Amino acid sequence: MTTVLEPKAPGVLAEDKDAWSGEVVVLCPRCKALQTLQVVGDSILPTRKYIQKGTQVYHDCGSTQPCRLYRIL
Ligand SMILES: [Zn+2]
Q1: How many whole angstroms from 9 Cα to the centroid of ligand 1?
Q2: pTM of the complete model
Q3: Distance from Cα 58 to the centre of ligand 1, integer Å
Q4: In the predicted structure, residue 3 carries a pLDDT above the cut 80
Q5: Domain range holding 35?
């Protein structure tokens, strides 16, 4: 199993001043979709189903609430 830590500010990518790269688990609050996304320099790599707006990530199911992000350590 992969260890997942909940960030201090759920749903926000850039919680630290330092750019961060790695993987995050993205949980959509609307449809509960779970997806692992690559992050490079605090930006998710472009995917079909997820859109980044600022430090928030939104699912394309129409959710108006940003996805919750969990860093994978
Ligand atoms: Zn969704």
Answers
A1: 20
A2: 0.71
A3: 8
A4: no
A5: 4-72
